[in-house]
Amino acid sequence: MIDVRTALKHGLAQLREAHVPSFTLAAELLLLHVLGRDRTWLYAHPEEQVTLADAERFFALIVRCAAGEPTQHLTGKQEFWGLEFEVTPDVLIPRPETEHVIEVALDRLAVRELRAGRKQTLTGECLQIADIGTGSGCIAIALAKESPHATIYATDISSVALAVARRNAARHSVSDRIRFLECHLLDALSDSPLATRHSPLLLDLVASNPPYIGRREAATLMREVRDHEPETSLYGGEEGYELYAGLITQAAAHLKSAGILVLELGHNSLPAVQPLLDAPAWANVAVTNDLAGIPRIIAAERT
Fold first, then answer.
1. In whole angstroms, how far apart are CA 49 and each of 52, 58, 89?
2. 289 phi and psi angles, rounded to 5 deg
3. Which pLDDT score, from 0 to 100, does residue 120 have?
4. Pairing state of beta strands 128-132 and 151-156?
5. What is the pLDDT of residues 24-50, one digit of tens each?
């Protein structure tokens, strides 16, 4: 038998020796996952005995984490926008910086309502929203929770990723308002029953966290990312920004007048992406930095 304090001490020591990022948090999350407890309990009961079976499970996970498997894959979950999401090796693990996509999208929609002289009670009535490259569904589902009357289209080229997204939508009771589409970018919206040959489905908001890492940067990535997250979600081409031109062109064709485009950027994407919005189709272009001061979000309005 071993107590909670000792198990945690040994676990984080192994992860520290293996140079696992945030090794203390990783050890805590793995122990909480095995014990089915929360963090408050963990530190309130340091002398609680851990069963032999739970100790074996915990240290087996520690070994896998030390070898480079992401903690989120070992626990099968990650929090985003205050919601718990299932994650698997088939989807990109939601990152805190992607929450800026939600913040900017909601702010832009609220400002649009004010400019139009409408009451600022944004629950999403009549809103048509698309999340491109949905992965786990975190952006689409967060927007569905914040705008409970909006209709949302979530696209991805991966059928297995869409299966994860559908399960997350069901978990958060928004399946009835999100239509999941297997396609490249916005291609499937042209086939929507609401679209015609001469009148495409028009949207109020297009949001996306597209693949934006350059393949030439692969060697610089952490092993947890490079070796365990899906390549189709990571790499946007040799340079990393190749997908933005097509995405922006399709968004221009599918956004209503005053419709909003919100895109997440890679750490060095801004110089390549911003000129794509210096066109008559776009106005009110703005960039939002993340907490590290990196340009993380670019947003624009369809003229």
1. 9, 13, 33
2. -85, 150
3. 62
4. parallel
5. 999 999 999 999 999 999 989 999 999
Q: How far apart are CA 303 and CA 110, in angstroms?
A: 17
- pLDDT, position 77: 96
Q: How far apart are CA 302 and CA 256, in angstroms?
A: 7
Tell me if 37 sits within 8 A of 44, measured CB to CB. no
How many Å apart are CA 118 and CA 125, to the nearest integer?
12
Report strand pairing: 2-3 vs 151-156: unpaired
Predicted TM-score (pTM) of the model is 0.93
Query: Taking a C-beta distance cutoff of 8 angstroms, is the pair 258, 238 a contact?
Result: no
Which phi and psi angles does 291 have, rounded to 5°? -70, -20
Measured distance CA(2)–CA(144) in Å, rounded? 44
For residues 252 and 270, give the distance between their C-alpha atoms in angstroms, rounded to a whole number.
19
Amino acid at 14: Q
For residue 4, what are the CA distances in angstroms to 32, 62, 66, 301?
Answer: 10, 15, 20, 53
The per-residue pLDDT for range 273-283, each reduced to its tens digit, is 999 999 999 99
Structure tokens at 175: 């399946």
Counting Cα atoms < 13 Å in the Cβ hemisphere of 137 gives: 35
pLDDT average, residue stretch 196-225: 89
Average pLDDT over residues 115-129: 74
